[in-house]
């Protein structure tokens, strides 16, 4: 049995239901990508699976127990989440913000140990920002700031890492750096990675398992071969996609796509970025 799964999960805000009766399994020691159009429930699902927000009914099960039974520090030692638009305390240095990832392991007065400092320095090095350790986070570019947050998640040293659009604000080169870093954490350390991605080709290239959502429900969950498929993308994004093969790894890729028009020959009103296959530098 997998370590992490949901059972008939319902999530919403007030009377508005976002995710309904959702049951999924997250493969252990794999990279899982969640795709879907804007507003389909991807971020809401991540927040509920990490107890950032409560779910209405159903359950999120980790190691055979509901996550609602785990204390805060205990859960934070098992899973970390990088939200879509994280905000920190103004005036912090890069090193100080990354050190927050060590909170679940602190005792007493919360002083950092030698191990804490070693892990912090490792996270800074892994994300390529060791030279920024004493710089103010407020003075950084969007891309640099994003890497600081990823370093904080790495410093938490959890076996499971959730990331909501981790390549936000990054140019193409830094997007690949981040995704390759996450891939290395998975391949070399066996960490389970769960991330929301808008770029379909990034999902196809880096994920072992893809969950495609529409209106809070699963359209298809499976390998990249099963999900990066003409009919699946048509259902999820209302696009007519041409699926080819990446010449570098032979994985499926979305070569190009067009919006599907209705019977009045009017394109469906859907922003192109929900099915983007590339990001501007």
TrEMBL record:
A GO BP entry: iron ion transport
Compartments in which it is found: Cell membrane
Domain ABC transporter per the UniProt entry, residue ranges: 4-240
InterPro entries noted in UniProt: AAA+_ATPase, ABC_transporter-like_ATP-bd, ABC_transporter-like_CS, P-loop_NTPase, Siderophore_ABC-ATPase
Keyword annotations from UniProtKB, A to Z: ATP-binding, Cell membrane, Ion transport, Iron, Iron transport, Membrane, Nucleotide-binding, Transport
CDD domains according to UniProt: ABC_Iron-Siderophores_B12_Hemin (cd03214)
Pfam families in UniProt: ABC_tran
Any single GO CC term annotated in Swiss-Prot or TrEMBL for this entry: plasma membrane
Single GO MF annotation: ATP hydrolysis activity
Membrane topology field: Peripheral membrane protein
Residue ranges of coiled coil: none
Protein name (record): Iron-dicitrate ABC transporter ATP-binding protein
Source organism per UniProt: Pullulanibacillus pueri
Lineage: Bacteria, Bacillati, Bacillota, Bacilli, Bacillales
């Amino acid at each position: 049995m997998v370590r992490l799964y949901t059972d008939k999960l319902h999530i919403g805000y007030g009377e508005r239901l976002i995710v309904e009766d959702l049951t999924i399994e997250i493969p252990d020691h794999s990279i899982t990508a969640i795709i879907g159009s804007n507003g389909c429930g991807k971020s809401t699902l991540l927040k509920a699976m990490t107890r950032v927000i409560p779910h209405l009914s159903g359950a999120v099960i980790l190691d055979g127990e509901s996550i609602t039974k785990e204390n805060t520090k205990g859960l934070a030692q098992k899973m970390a989440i990088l939200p879509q638009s994280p905000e920190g305390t103004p005036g912090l240095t890069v090193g100080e913000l990354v050190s927050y990832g060590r909170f679940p392991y602190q005792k007493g007065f919360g002083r950092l140990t030698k191990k804490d400092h070693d892990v912090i320095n490792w996270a800074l090095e892994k994300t390529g920002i060791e030279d920024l350790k004493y710089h103010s986070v407020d003075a950084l570019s969007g891309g640099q700031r994003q890497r600081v947050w990823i370093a904080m998640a790495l410093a938490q040293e959890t076996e499971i890492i959730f990331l909501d659009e981790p390549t936000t604000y990054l140019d193409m080169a830094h997007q690949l750096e981040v995704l390759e870093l996450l891939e290395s954490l998975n391949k070399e350390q066996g960490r389970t990675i769960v991330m929301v991605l808008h770029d379909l080709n990034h999902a196809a290239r880096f994920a072992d398992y893809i969950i495609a959502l529409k209106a809070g429900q699963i359209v298809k969950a499976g390998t990249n071969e099963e999900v990066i498929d003409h009919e699946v993308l048509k259902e999820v994004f209302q696009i007519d996609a041409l699926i080819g093969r990446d010449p570098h790894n032979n994985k499926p890729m979305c070569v190009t796509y067009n919006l599907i028009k209705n019977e009045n020959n009017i394109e469906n009103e859907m922003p192109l970025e929900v099915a983007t296959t590339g990001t501007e530098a």
